[in-house]
Specification:
This protein is α/β, with parallel strands linked by helices. It has helices at about 20-30, 55-65, 75-85, 110-120, 135-150, 175-180, 195-205, 225, 240-255, and strands at about 5-10, 35-40, 45, 50, 65-70, 90-95, 105, 130, 160, 190, 215-220, 235.
Length: about 260
């Protein structure tokens, strides 16, 4: 490994509760190892979950860095394959390696869903719905965990559709309409993200329902906006900086020539 290893982080979002925290964890570990971190903000080309730096950057990046951390949603598979083919080790966060040959790091989505459901069960809820856009890997894992854990408890699964990246009540309209049309309406809704929860709360209150008196809403990620919302939003806490820290540790280890097993 060079005296001062260079780690390249590819991120579509370099600030905010996900991208910013993951980057902070990577930076902490890379600098602690005496390395330096270079961050390239990727640009989406319209394909969901697929973004890439300018193609001309590929040969330069392959020559100039010792390891890469691909932060989801980040670079298209061909770009990352090019890096790996040039022997640059790659670590993925919150997304599996497309061909399964590189390590990936993510939050404990199943454990978070279990904690959230147990919280709602302790408060007496049994008709619990799950609202999400399921295009992102973490959100799909959360949806799968919801279905499995509801089955463990012998409870009915109710899934509500949310728009991708929901920000306001109109983005939760399909979920609200679906919920209001159910004969046996859920008394609680767990959402895959806090942004989805905030949009859902706005949509429900706009439809005349009281939160949490009529319908309880539980978020996921524990972002800052959730702490200041009205009504207040309970949320599953996620340490995205810890995800980044582990990714940084693995990237440094691979830059040193250490063997890191592929997969999560």
């Amino acid at each position: 490994m060079p005296a001062r290893p260079t780690v390249l982080a590819l991120a579509e979002h370099i600030s905010g509760p996900y991208g910013g925290e993951v980057l902070s964890g990577i930076l902490r570990e890379v600098t602690a190892a005496g390395g330096r971190l270079v961050v390239v903000q990727t640009a989406s080309f319209g394909e969901r979950g697929s973004a890439s730096p300018v193609p001309r950057a590929m040969p330069l990046a392959a020559r100039a860095v010792d390891a890469v951390v691909a932060i989801a949603p980040t670079s298209a598979a061909p770009y990352l394959a090019t890096l790996r083919d040039s022997s640059v080790p790659v670590v993925f966060t919150s997304q599996p390696c497309p061909d399964g040959v590189a390590p990936s790091v993510g939050p404990d989505n199943r454990g978070g869903v279990r904690a959230g459901l147990e919280h709602l069960l302790r408060h007496g809820h049994r008709r619990i719905a799950f609202a999400a856009d399921l295009h992102h890997h973490d959100l799909r894992e959360r949806g799968e965990a919801y279905r499995e854990l509801m089955a463990e408890h012998g409870l009915a699964v109710v899934e509500l559709p949310l728009a991708d990246n929901p920000y306001g009540p109109s983005d939760a309209q399909d979920a609200v309409t679906t919920l209001l049309g159910l004969a046996d309406r859920p008394t609680a809704v767990m959402t895959a993200t806090d942004r989805g929860a905030l949009a859902l709360v706005a949509g429900l209150t706009g439809a005349g329902l009281r939160v949490p008196e009529d319908v309880a809403v539980l978020g996921f990620d524990d972002i800052e906006d959730a702490a200041y919302s009205t009504p207040s939003l309970s949320s599953v806490h996620v340490r995205f900086d810890a995800v980044g820290a582990l990714a940084g540790q693995l990237a440094i280890a691979m830059a040193r020539g250490e063997t890191v097993p592929p997969g999560p």
